[in-house]
Design brief:
Number of helices: 14
Number of domains: 4
Helix content: 10-25%
CATH superfamily of the largest domain: Phosphatidylinositol (PI) phosphodiesterase
Strand content: 25-35%
Number of strands: 34
Distance between the termini: 77 Å
Largest sheet: 8 strands, antiparallel
Mean pLDDT: 88
CATH class of the largest domain: Alpha Beta
Structural class: alpha+beta
CATH topology of the largest domain: TIM Barrel
Shape: globular
Length: 638
């Protein structure tokens, strides 16, 4: 959107505006207590020489002069009292100082203070992508002194025509005003960025148009602003992993499929207006090789036609009505081609999570990639599929495209297959993920994001948030956007804790090895006990050494705002199979194992118990002997 004022970026309300929250990741193997997304974009620009984590710029202005390599393009810039001061006497003067170097993935943070302003609408900015000489076009993350205004924070571009294009706006929780230090940051991944105000994510954009040589900059408009502690850090390229303090990335399943006919341009438009970060759609070829957006292998369910999509020509598919099945107001909606969908996203905004549906040949995948290239959308498309071959072909033909593997059930080793297929994200069924949350931590450690499908209720979203899921594919994208915002706004600083495993009321046999998994927020310390004795999150419970019956895990967390406690009681059950497992894993002498196994097989439980009592500490280790004898006596009484 172009804004008339040449001096004051302003625009529509940001659809992705959110406040921060503390993120907790619980896994069965480990506990993380912390304080998503920003989404990544792959570009063709040369990578920066820095490695992820390297601090590229760190300036506290202690030298008393402008740092070497900092270019005061226009306006008055000076270093005084350990701060950098920039002054713009006129609201029409966008004064700037450039520095740093071109980076694709980075975090840019600084302490900003409005010393004086001509009006509350005046602003200062972090320059995200600015030519070293200050020429247009450039992109900025802006903060007004009247920060609580609807456009108190912005992402904006100054075009070569000296016009403003504002892509996103948001209001901060309090006004920066004058004389107040505010720590601000922007995390950038290619064409996408997150605006962070005093540690709180306020909004996202996916509309940056990156150059190949733009650097960082500081701006001032209509006042005097001071800066301190400017830091630029190289980030890992996978911005899909939900950062600390960020909500979910919202992915609209088949567009706004709960509100409009799925996989159509109107569903895409509704999802976009609802604030979805990504549109998820499916692609398949027509008989004559044109990639179309359709989920089923036939057109029967979602159009007024019949037949397999691969048996129909492009002309036949384009003649079908793809809207009337959903509601009368959608009569005349058409099945879009991939090219049409991408053109709509390119011109109107948005990113595409594209599922290659069903088996595809390498040539068919090549056609999909060529369409993406032709539509100049390589930096805004993420490819996913259940089909491993489709992902292999995509990587071979376009390694710059991020890849996601769809799974109905979890792989035995998600990290291994992620490395094998060069995955950016591992995308399982959300219910499968909730059943085994411990897979998330090692995937994150390997630099792989986790996107869960297809989850449509607030209860499920809350559980997925607690275990550290990065993104949600949902039929109710607008509701999830609202949930993100409401959840973060009501989040308090009081600590919370939940025991995810073993689950409350679980009945476990001897052969199982549950892991203590704890999810905590706003916590500095975590104490875990098992039946009153010290234990730890991530500990694997050896049920062969616990007595039969009820046991209680307790987790207590402490934080700046207090303490919180959770308990989970589970039962170790006695069974013939469980007793057999105890015997086989007892570490007893082989002859003793044989003797116990024979008595077990013949149901001689009382004799087994008496025999084990006599052999305790001799041929059968004493610790396990007492458990075997107790279980045998329990079975003898049944």
């Amino acid at each position: 959107m172009t804004v008339p004022s040449a001096s004051s970026p302003s625009g529509r309300a940001a659809t992705g505006s959110v406040l921060t929250r503390t993120r907790a990741v619980a896994a069965a193997a480990a506990l993380t207590v912390a304080g998503g997304v920003a989404a990544v974009a792959i570009t063709t620009s040369s990578p920066a020489a820095a490695e992820p984590g390297d601090v590229v710029v760190s300036e506290s202005f202690s030298s008393g002069t402008l740092p070497a390599g900092w270019n005061a393009v226009d306006g008055a810039w000076k270093v005084e009292n350990g701060r950098l001061y920039g002054t713009s006497a006129s609201a029409s003067a966008n004064n700037k100082i450039t520095f740093g170097r071109h980076l694709n993935d980075f975090r840019f943070e600084a302490t900003m203070r409005f010393e004086s302003v001509s009006a509350a609408t005046r602003w200062a900015s972090l320059g995200i992508d600015v030519p070293a000489d200050g020429a247009t076009p450039w992109w900025i993350a802006t903060m007004r002194s009247g920060t609580t205004a609807a456009n108190g924070l912005e992402f904006a571009q100054r075009t070569t025509a000296n016009a403003w294009v504002v892509t996103n706006t948001a209001s901060a929780p309090y006004a920066a005003g004058t004389g107040r230090d505010v720590r601000v940051a922007v995390e950038v991944h290619g064409s996408q960025a997150r605006w962070i105000f005093d540690g709180r994510e306020m909004m996202r954009t996916s509309s940056l148009q990156r150059s190949t040589d733009g650097v960082q900059a500081l701006f001032v408009n209509g006042g005097t602003v001071s800066y301190d502690d400017v830091v630029v850090t190289e980030l890992p390229p996978n911005g899909y992993i939900r950062p600390e303090g960020s909500p979910f990335t919202v992915i609209a399943h088949r567009g706004a499929s709960a509100a409009a006919p799925e996989n159509t341009l109107v569903a895409q438009e509704i999802a976009r207006r609802g604030g979805a970060d990504w549109i998820e759609n499916d692609v398949q070829p027509s008989k004559d090789g044109v990639p179309f957006i359709l989920h089923d292998d036939t057109v029967d369910r979602t159009t007024d036609g019949t037949g397999k999509i691969r048996s129909l020509t492009a002309a036949q598919i384009k003649a079908l009505d793809a809207g009337s099945w959903f509601a009368p107001q959608y009569v005349g909606e058409r099945v879009p081609t991939l090219a049409e969908q991408l053109a709509d996203l390119r011109t109107r905004g948005g990113n595409l999570l594209l599922e290659i549906k069903g088996k595809h040949t390498k040539d068919e995948v090549a056609t999909i990639i060529q369409v993406i290239r032709d539509e100049q959308m390589m930096g805004r498309v993420f490819v996913q599929s259940f089909e491993v071959d489709a992902l292999r072909y995509t990587y071979e033909l376009a390694p710059e495209l991020p890849l996601g593997l769809l799974r109905s059930s979890l792989d035995a080793d998600p990290v291994a297959i992620s490395k094998e297929l060069h995955l950016t994200a591992y995308n399982p069924d959300g219910n499968a993920l909730l059943a085994k949350p411990e897979v998330i931590a090692p995937l994150h450690d390997a630099g792989v994001a986790v996107m869960a499908w297809t989850m449509d209720s607030a209860g499920l979203w809350q559980r997925l948030e607690r275990i550290g899921t990065d993104a949600i594919i949902t039929n109710r994208a607008a509701e999830l956007v609202g949930w993100n915002s409401a959840f973060t706004q009501r989040a308090s600083a009081e600590p919370t804790v939940e025991i995810a495993s073993p689950a409350e009321g679980a009945r476990l046999d001897r052969a199982q090895s549950p892991v203590i998994a704890v999810a905590a927020t706003n916590a500095e310390t975590v104490t875990v006990t098992l039946d009153g004795k010290k234990s730890a999150a991530g500990r694997k419970l050896d049920l062969a050494k616990l007595t039969a019956g009820r046991h209680t895990v307790t987790a207590e967390v402490t934080g700046p705002e207090g303490t919180a406690t959770a308990t989970s009681t589970f039962t170790v059950t006695v069974s013939q199979a469980g007793l057999g497992y105890l015997i086989l894993t007892s570490g007893a002498d082989p002859s003793a194992v044989d003797t116990m196994a024979v008595k077990l097989a013949h149901g001689q439980y009382a004799q087994l118990a008496s025999w084990v009592d006599r052999q305790a500490g001799r041929t059968v280790p004493a610790e396990v002997a007492s458990v075997i004898a107790a279980d045998a006596r329990t079975l003898a009484l049944r």
